[in-house]
Amino acid sequence: MDEFLAELEARMASATRASGVHPPLTAEALQVIAAADQGGTPMFTSANLARIAKENGVDVSSDMTTNDIIAELRRRQQPARSLAQWHVRGLRSSTTTTARPAVDA
Description:
By secondary structure, the protein is an all-alpha fold. The protein has helices at residues 2-19, 27-37, 47-55, 66-77, 79-93. It has five helices and no strands.
């Protein structure tokens, strides 16, 4: 059973990287972002923060600060919203022009 779950997780991560769309953040990741919004940024990268980041597809390197990790979590929170906005704007403008808005990288 553990092998099956590990394989499934690997396939999901691979598909996510290929499509450029990230799955929704976990509740813990959203709590980290909310705490940072209230000024609660950790002083160092704890094992717990690294685990939360990893569970949300962030590869934590030794040169990343806690602010870098939180910024990456925020970035992963944004693409779905940005793509939805792009799609709506693209549909509205498709009858008048062929130009498309840039998608956030």
